Amino acid sequence: MDIFNCFAPTRVVFGRNSLELLHTLPALGKKALLVTSNGKSTIKNGSFDKTVGELKALGIDYVHFNHIAANPENTAVEEGARIGRENGVDFVIALGGGSVMDASKSIAMLIPQHTDTLWDFANSPAGGKQIPSEKALPWIAITTSAGTGSEVDATSVISNPGAHEKIGVSGCPFAAYAIVDPELMKTVPPMYTAYQGFDALFHSLEGYISCKHNLMSEMVERTAIENIGKYLPRAVKDGNDMEAREKVAFANTLSGYSMVFASCTSEHSMEHAMSAYHMQLPHGAGLIMLSLEYFRFWINKHVCDDRFVDMARFLGKTDAEKPEDFLEALASLQRACGVDNLKMSDYGIKKEDAMTLAKNARATMLRLFVADPAETTDEEIAGIYERAFR
């Protein structure tokens, strides 16, 4: 049996109306930076008022920062850290989806440092490659979507538009607490429910074929894949189907643990390159665009045939016998969720961009290529982009 070394210190409070238990958890400080998106969803779904009520019950003051957009940028993180410092906050609360949680853990890391520049800690061609010298502030994740698994991992994916980089920033902390309340996800629109659900799915699919896989990662990945295959179409069809919302939310959190215990592979690097240049592209949508050709590439290499048969069965194709059956199962799920006709060209991506994207993906997130089941060349990665292009 191979050795594995796992560390996942976040206390997870999961279930319907679990936000109402926030006040029962030990306080992390006296003044919070409460981070939300620049939209109005947390106001409309009542989660903002509920969170403020929980803080009041604990006697905790807060400062609201609501400048986080989808594909959060380095400048927004730097602004949040500045506001946190100026107001003397001693912990951070993320109330939102993956973008808000990723930004919040970077803010929590940056506030105590002796620099205002987030990219000093970016391990990328444009980054400073520094390691934080000061301990990050603690933070709480209250997730309102089921897609990134960011509530239980220490990865913070941030974009730097000027450098065309979208990467994981170094030195970010795990959340002290994660509140996963499926009631907060009921108002997510169908298309974004699908995009987010497929992001969670790809975390586990990639982890399962990764060379980093182990007994712990396989345990969470199997359950995550099974739940998404069975329940995501229901959640897309009816956002008030709470059994489906719960199962997809659970799968998302498990897929977060997949990234902690194993790793994503180069598919995620490839999508990050796409949305680094085209920031209006939803992350999950970009992954869906790549997915069939990406996994077909590995199937044709025959480096992990048995694992593709396993994953086909996890997705519900119980009679799967050959790796290609996985592609059929994945395509069927995409059709069931109404995301089988997504096009790169709709977001301004051109076929001739393939090599630029391939080089960007490898240069900015090499560690995910290292996790692949076998080595690749830039030409092979560019070929995947070209075959996936529509």
Automatic annotation (TrEMBL):
InterPro entries: ADH_Fe/GldA, ADH_Fe_C, Alcohol_dehydrogenase_Fe
Any one Pfam family match given in the protein's UniProt record, by short name: ADH_Fe_C
GO molecular function, one term: metal ion binding
Residues of the Alcohol dehydrogenase iron-type/glycerol dehydrogenase GldA domain: 9-182
Ranges annotated as spanning the membrane: none
Keyword Oxidoreductase: yes
Key words, A-Z: Oxidoreductase
CDD domains linked to this entry: Fe-ADH-like
Top-level taxon in the UniProt lineage: Bacteria
The Fe-containing alcohol dehydrogenase-like C-terminal domain, residue ranges: 193-389
Presence of the UniProt keyword Transport in the record: no
Protein name, UniProt field: Iron-containing alcohol dehydrogenase
